[in-house]
Amino acid sequence: MDTMKVAVAGGTGVVGARTVDALRKAGHEAVVLSRSAGTDLLAAAHDTGEAHRLARALDGCAAVVDVTSVTTMGGAASTRFFEAVTTALLTAERAAGVKHHVALSIVGAAAAPYAYYAGKAAQERLVMASGDGWSLLRATQFHEFASQLAARSRGRVKAVPAVRSQPVAAAEVGARLAELATGEPIGLSRDLGGPKVEDMPTLVRRYLAATGSQARVFAVPLPGRWGRALRDGTLLPGPDAQLGTTTFDDYLATVARRDS
Predict the structure, then answer these.
(1) Confidence check: pLDDT of 197 > 70
(2) Is residue 260 over pLDDT 70?
(3) Residues facing residue 136 across a β-bridge
(4) Counting Cβ atoms within 10 Å, is residue 118 exposed (0-12), middle (13-18) or buried (19+)?
(5) What is the SS3 string spanning 231-255?
């Protein structure tokens, strides 16, 4: 197998770090694109100098994996972020001669383009309109999403949206992204989900118990089309999805070992 050079935008995040690890374990060269590594993707969308710097960072890369994210639940802010970053990456890739763009999206983004998912839906549209050199993976929420929801409120009572989910291990998503990046562009990949449909408030309760927290969790059904999509299975993977094997219990076991 030939060694490939692959850039990972957002390569220090939850799934980005796993993607970088999977690439390097397979013998490939992984280039991390993040502000901490000296690359500002948002600035590259508006500043010519930063855009040139980004293109130089992609020199010699066969593929770019975009696993960037933004901390917001607002649809407008999410859309602005993903449109800017996706456009900056695609433009820099053309300038650098990169032939393959791999993007990570979320199962249900196209069907429920609301709140944070509005930005992911916009990202999907830009990638799909960019030509034929792309692969797009839609994955379900990661196991870590339960801990992120738990951390949003610091009190002993936590309100968690009522969500039906099929959470997947971030490492399994990273491995699939690395596999896609080192192959030929395939367009829309099969959905990737976890092994079991779960109730998100219950997962948060289990996470809190595993970490010794006595906080109470209340399920909150969100209103409108967005809330209905969270509850009715819109965010679950399709019948032909690829399913990971790491369960939420497996994830909790690693959390308990880490925090013990």
Answers:
(1) yes
(2) no
(3) 103, 188
(4) buried
(5) HCCCCCCCCCCEECCCCHHHHHHHH
Query: Is the overall model pTM greater than 0.85, yes or no?
Result: yes
- 142-145 contacts at long range (C-beta below 8 A, 24 or more positions apart): 142/14, 142/15, 142/167, 142/168, 142/169, 142/170, 142/173, 143/167, 143/168, 143/169, 143/170, 143/194, 143/246, 143/248, 143/251, 144/14, 144/170, 144/251, 145/200
What pLDDT is stored for residue 152 in this prediction? 85
Cα–Cα distance, 96 to 248 (Å, whole number): 40
Mean pLDDT, rounded, for 154-181: 95
Q: DSSP labels for 110-178? A: TT---THHHHHHHHHHHHHTS-S-EEEEEE--BTTHHHHHHHT--SSEEEEE--EE--B-HHHHHHHHH
